[in-house]
Design a protein that fits this description.
Layout: E1 2-8, H1 17-27, E2 33-38, E3 41-44, H2 48-53, E4 61-67, H3 71-82, E5 121-122, E6 124-125, E7 130-138, H4 155-178, H5 183-196, H6 199-210, H7 215-231, H8 236-256, E8 272-275, H9 280-284, E9 293-296, H10 304-312, E10 316-318, H11 326-329, E11 332-336, E12 341-344, H12 348-369, E13 385-390, H13 396-401, E14 407-411, H14 425-438, E15 443-447, H15 475-480, H16 482-495, E16 500-505, H17 511-530, E17 539-544, H18 547-551, H19 553-557, E18 562-565, H20 567-575, H21 593-608, E19 612-615, H22 623-632, E20 636-639, H23 644-652
Parallel strand pairs: 7-8, 8-9, 9-10, 13-14, 13-20, 14-15, 15-16, 16-17, 17-18, 18-19, 19-20
Antiparallel strand pairs: 1-4, 2-3, 2-4, 5-12, 6-10, 7-11, 11-12
The protein binds phosphoenolpyruvate and magnesium ion.
Length: about 675
Amino acid sequence: METMKRVRVGVEGGLHARPAAELVRLAKGFEAEIVIGAGTQTAPARSSLKLLLLGVKEGDEVELRTSGPDAAEALSAISGFLSGGAAHEAAAPSASIASGASQAPAGEFALAAGERPAGALKGIGTGGGPAIGPVFHFIQPALEAPAGPTPPEARSAELEKVEGARVRLLRQIHEDAAQAASPQARDILTAIASLAEDADWAAAIAAHVADGQPAITAILAAGRETAQALAALSDPYARARAEDMDAVARLLALAVNGLKPVSLADCPEGAIVVAEDLTALEIGSADLRRTGGLICRNGSATSHAAILAKAFGIPAVFGVADPENKLAAARTVALDGTSGLVYPDPSSDVAETFKARCAQARAEAERLSALRDVAPVTRDGTPVIVAANIGSVKDIELAKEYGAMGVGLMRTEFLFLGRTALPDEEEQFSTYRTVLEAFPGHPVVIRTLDIGGDKPVRGISVPQEENPFLGLRGIRLCLANPALFKVQLRALLRAAPYGDLKVMLPMVSDPAEIEGTRQLIAVCEAELTAEDKAFGSFDLGTMVETPAAALIAHDLAAVTAFFSIGTNDLTQYVMAADRMNPSVASLCRTNHPAVLRAIRMVAQAAQAHGIWCGICGEAASDASLLQIFLDAGVRELSMAPASIPRIKQAIGAATLSSPPQTP
Ligand code: PEP
Ligand code: MG
């Protein structure tokens, strides 16, 4: 069987290393031949390198062809992944508490772009604020290849050396990934491993060895060829993968020579790492939180190293121009991750200023981290819950680290997307139970499956729709597929005894949808009772995301236990402005009077019916809207974990206007 489909790529940032590696993993689950075509080029979905070389960007249209026994299933799963349903979205890096320092008031050394004071070098700052400390020069051992060609009789032994080293290297990368200091580092190492095990690269090395090149020369040459092809792409993310390819080639060459690479783990605590290049592999296998800062002569803001530095809030500057090679001899260095300025061996004045700024940044970070266990109340004594939005159990740790008071939105669709089979009741039960047990004494709001025609999931058939965002998505899709919905509801009922579970329905536009769900819950309860399976109960809430739900908030409040306003969708539907379309971004804003009026209507209806009202869209972490939300009667805000301390602080500084404003 052969199938074909054109797909608009919705994967964030396009097919760069991590999604390419995920796509390869997904493709390997099928027997079918899967080929992706972009422009005049095609790539098999089992080669992450070839996928990268397609240079597919977010928004591009690709042609997906599958052939073989499970071609239809492969087409559905891969097109679902390509159109944006990848689990890797959950791993997007988020700023850490320490990154709050980068938002500290600009100091004397935070200059306008392009300005460079005396004694300073300039690069691209990736945030993290100021740092000063002793230098840790990070220099890898030199590589030496034998001069002259390998005699023909020694070439197969040369190739065996390469293969042996490749197996050892891959084992090491996988071990590092298993012990990675963060989910982001683990994802990056996994993507690097997929480059290292790429069959095309191995074939290119073998071809060079067969031509008589010594192993090291062959590895570096094959790595360079691939890196150059990647570097020629216009997408900065794909270009940054050229760095990864060179790095992997160097590591393999070192392994062939029996040399161990220098590790960032050798960096003394608090020292500033100064490197020529800092590869994702080097950075991913160390605990960055121990380093005081990073300076890299090469590297871009989109390199893995920069992404990880940002995720940990480490002051970092990449691409530092150093024509006189001052950094090579420096013993102390000061850097500003905000302005991108670097001072090798700073003068005493500069050093003093940096020390003062570092102390200020530390105090700010400490002040915010001190809020970790704080349950914030406004100045006039109104408590407000600040909870986390999570996509999987992987996010629990981060949410707790930032002091989440429970979960205000768990997007369960991440359990269903980008995989080959639907999660069964046992898997869902165990996931929900894990989340509930992670937040004892706090509410955990789990949203039922929110997918639709734009995000096909293998095993769920959705008709082709002209306008999927106005189609069979969210609760509409679940009610149209009771067998699918019941699996989730049964899992939720069984998980309920393990914590304070609340369940909410996405995309509600009519009270009949709440009623329909209650009827299914009753069926599930009867089944579980008959099967003698333990279960509990949960509050059933409504996500307010459609203008209809806002306009009939009073009717919905009468049949529901709580409201959580999904400002991302509510804004796009109220403003009729696609939330993904940058050309209407100026209209798609939550602070528009029309959206704010809708929010006030909803919060007021909740108050009138004695139910609580929260916000779980992006706007929940917008401090400039906090006062409006609180005055409207919103008492729960749920957001990306890294934003929690800042919003807790803002709540502590707010005073409610009384009585709540009317629409
Ligand atoms: C929202 O629409 O605001 C929301 C939280 O849901 P999602 O972003 O998952 O659509
Ligand atoms: Mg939504």
